[in-house]
Amino acid sequence: MNPGITCRNLSVAFEVGDGVKHMVLNNLDATFPAGKISIVFGNIGVGKSTLLNTLAGLRRPTSGDVVVSDQTVSRWMGVYRDQWRRQMGIIFQHYHLLGDLTVLENVILPLIPLGYTLSECRRRGIAALQQVALLRHAGSLANTLSGGERQKTAVARALVNEPIFVFADEPTAHQDPENERQMMGLFLDCAARNAVVVIATHDEKLATGTDASIRYRLEKGILHPCSS
Predict the structure, then answer these.
(1) Is there a domain that residue 100 lies in?
(2) Could you read off the pLDDT of 100-154 as tens digits, one per residue?
(3) What's the pTM value of the predicted model, to 2 decimals?
(4) Residue 1 is assigned to a structural domain of this protein
(5) Can you state the angle between helices 147-159 and 177-192, rounded to 10 degrees?
(6) What is the CATH number of the domain that holds 179?
(7) How many angstroms separate the Cα of 165 from the Cα of each of 111, 122, 138?
(8) What is the mean predicted confidence (pLDDT) over 201-228?
(9) Rounded-to-integer distance, Cα 153 and Cα 182, Å
(10) Which of 104, 134, 179, 197 is deepest in the core (most CB within 10 A)?
(11) Can you give 140-162 as a three-state secondary structure string?
(12) Total domain count, the chain
């Protein structure tokens, strides 16, 4: 059973020079449960990406912990951290696609460390591209895509291994309303199979119009629960 992911007194501070630190996240306590979409809303630059990166183990907290099943995953090192990351799908705000690989090659990259055969990687990659209506671009180089198509590719790559933790940073920023609904439908499907889904957005319409059970506003380093 997926227990969700919890922040305990989580703080992240950045050095800004002369020994001065800027507190981006300040003693956060929150639980992001499995089986639901959790949305973190806030203005650009308030630390939403930092929160997602810390939850996903891409950034170590200055203090406090990220906990799953009573395990402090934010302090894991080496092989344990790598195994933890293989359970997640991450949609970065700037996508981080490899431009000289095809769309399909980008999508199947998370499957390679999991030991799947090439034919199985291809099958799963094609299925993921079908989900985001991008199969026609499977053989195109990633650097030839539009912004919206790159975003769809990033979503397909994040979901291709059916992760139990999904962290999505502005995942619909370059989509029209119809495609936005399609993307959110995929995240609802993830939640329906008991995944943890955490979405960061500055789009207040998305934050208030999504069928999400958990909503937070991030402001001045503090995570404020929002009423449903």
Answers:
(1) yes
(2) 999 999 999 999 988 899 999 999 999 999 999 999 999 999 999 999 999 999 9
(3) 0.92
(4) no
(5) 10
(6) 3.40.50.300
(7) 15, 22, 25
(8) 83
(9) 14
(10) 197
(11) CEHHHCCHHHHHHHHHHHHHCCC
(12) 1
